[in-house]
Amino acid sequence: MNYRIIITEDHPLFRSALVNALEQALSEITISEASSLDELTQTLEQEESVDLVLLDLLIPGAQGFSALLTLRNQYPEIPVVVISAREEATVIHKAIEYGASGFIPKSSPLDVLTSAVSQVLDGDIWLPENLEPVAEEDSTDNAMLEKIATLTPQQFRVLTMLRDGLRNKQIAWELDVSEACIKAHATAIFRKLGVNNRTQAVIELQNLELDTIQDGVES
């Protein structure tokens, strides 16, 4: 079987090393590369089928867990493995909670990384050894995550554009639909999230995006 993998990483040297390691370890793979969330989205739209996305959390166009949330919302059938320089247990557990099929620290040796990818392609979840448990957190985030999961891909796209500060007219132009259509989407989003306006909706999304990772800078 020929596996199709997309590596999303904005550092060329690390991306190149990862490509080489996977090509040597896995004989039947086709690898595409993306260096930003926009490039990843374009690649996913162009590919007929994708078996795995390797995702750096803070690629250009993403913040916190927003790229992971976007992928799990729009492409729930594609496994996503996070590869990150952030190795705190809270970040790893949160990534899995948000739908990642694995979490590989960037400090991992390449043979560990390729073994992890093989394991996920076989349908398993891969986590670092000796991962520390974290204290059970308030269920508020989980409840909101479940609500966001009910959004359609187009509604989620509108929500992220609202987060970016775009007005209804700008979103309508970007998505090539009418402004009335965007207003209808916004109304549906507010209803599903249990909020009253765009400010509250954006705050809820930002709380999920920035939780546990906002104080660090990924490399």
UniProtKB/TrEMBL annotation:
Domain HTH luxR-type: 144-209
Lyase recorded as keyword: no
Family matches, as Gene3D superfamilies: 3.40.50.2300
A GO MF term: DNA binding
GO biological process terms, semicolon-separated: phosphorelay signal transduction system; regulation of DNA-templated transcription
CDD domains linked: LuxR_C_like (cd06170), REC_NarL-like (cd17535)
Modified residues (4-aspartylphosphate): 56
Sequence intervals crossing the membrane: none
Keywords annotated in UniProt: DNA-binding, Phosphoprotein
Domain Response regulatory, first and last residues per copy: 4-121
Matching SMART domains: HTH_LUXR (SM00421), REC (SM00448)
InterPro entries: CheY-like_superfamily, EvgA-like, NreC/VraR/RcsB-like_REC, Sig_transdc_resp-reg_C-effctor, Sig_transdc_resp-reg_receiver, Tscrpt_reg_LuxR_C
Name of the protein in its database record: Transcriptional regulatory protein DegU
UniProt lineage: Bacteria, Pseudomonadati, Pseudomonadota, Gammaproteobacteria, Oceanospirillales
